UniProtKB/TrEMBL annotation:
EC number in record: 2.7.4.25
Record-given protein name: Cytidylate kinase
A GO molecular function held by the record: CMP kinase activity
Organism: Paucihalobacter ruber
Keywords: ATP-binding, Cytoplasm, Kinase, Nucleotide-binding, Transferase
GO CC terms, sorted: cytosol
Family: Belongs to the cytidylate kinase family. Type 1 subfamily.
Positions annotated to bind ATP: G10, F11, S12, S13, T14, G15, K16, S17, T18
InterPro entries tied to this protein: Cytidylate_kin (IPR003136), Cytidylate_kinase_dom (IPR011994), P-loop_NTPase (IPR027417)
Compartments (UniProt record): Cytoplasm
A Pfam family hit: Cytidylate_kin
Cytidylate kinase domain sequence ranges: 6-223
Keyword Transcription appears in the UniProt entry: no
Length: 227
């Protein structure tokens, strides 16, 4: 079997990471959550008071970039790789609404993107990888053998995200989750550097009306055909 690169892009909370993880496990491929890397930089900026509700020390953050080391370590119990910032496990810290509320502002910065894209390309050198994000099929791996663009209605996505956050014990309501999703969609689609877009050769996949299992089975068949 030849090893390929599978690029999965799409809007926030379309369930990309869940299915990407399942596909990688089924294919024995590596899974990389590129959004976790943007979230890690955001967490760093928040921890170091470089961004907040009414301030953003963008130039300072750019200067700090060389101090930010992001890595992934496979957790056998969880069955996927967790993200580390300078050696510290921050997998839970990056999944809060606080980080979600600032991440798209961080992801607009070209210097941030350049650094993370280089690392992502390095991770894909041996192929046999499933990576999800916003610009994987367009910028990170324009030559990927299989590109999938995931979409679902904003309401469906907000409902799913709300459930996920509530299951983790976070106190959030539907309106604020929906607002965050719509704001991120807007910024991600309209930014100058690497905006979220469907690659010309990507398969469009709308999962609004699919169960997780149906979605997995359909996508696995598409992957197997491409391999
Ligand atoms: O995938 P996730 O929702 O965790 O990504 C968080 C944010 O990181 C996105 O809203 C987007 O602003 C940014 N991102 C990006 N490019 C990627 C992955 C994520 O700009 N490849």
């Amino acid at each position: 079997n030849k090893k390929i690169i599978i690029a999965i892009d799409g809007f926030s909370s379309t369930g990309k990471s869940t299915v990407a993880k399942q596909l990688a496990a089924a294919l024995r491929y590596i899974y990389v959550d590129s959004g976790a890397m943007y979230r890690a930089v955001t967490f760093y900026a928040l921890e170091n008071d470089l961004i907040g509700v009414d301030f953003f020390y963008k130039d300072q953050l750019i200067k700090h970039l060389e101090r930010i080391r992001i890595s992934f370590k496979f957790n056998a119990e969880l069955g996927f790789a967790e993200v580390y910032l300078n050696g510290q496990n921050i997998e839970n810290e990056i999944r809060t609404l606080r980080v979600s509320n600032f991440v798209s502002k961080i992801a607009e910065i070209s210097e941030v993107r350049k650094k993370l894209v280089e690392q992502q390309q390095e991770m894909g050198k041996e192929k046999g990888i499933v990576m999800d994000g916003r610009d994987i099929g367009t910028v990170v791996f324009p030559e990927a053998e299989l590109k999938i663009f995931m979409t679902a209605s904003a309401e469906t996505r907000a409902k799913r995200r709300l459930e996920e956050l509530q299951n983790k014990g976070q106190e959030v309501n539907y309106q604020e989750v929906l607002k965050n999703i719509e704001e991120r969609d807007f910024i991600d689609t309209n930014r100058d550097d690497s905006p979220l877009a469907q690659a010309e050769d990507a398969v469009l996949f709308d999962n609004s009306n699919l169960s997780r299992e149906e979605q997995f089975n359909l996508l696995l068949a598409i992957c197997k055909k491409a391999i």
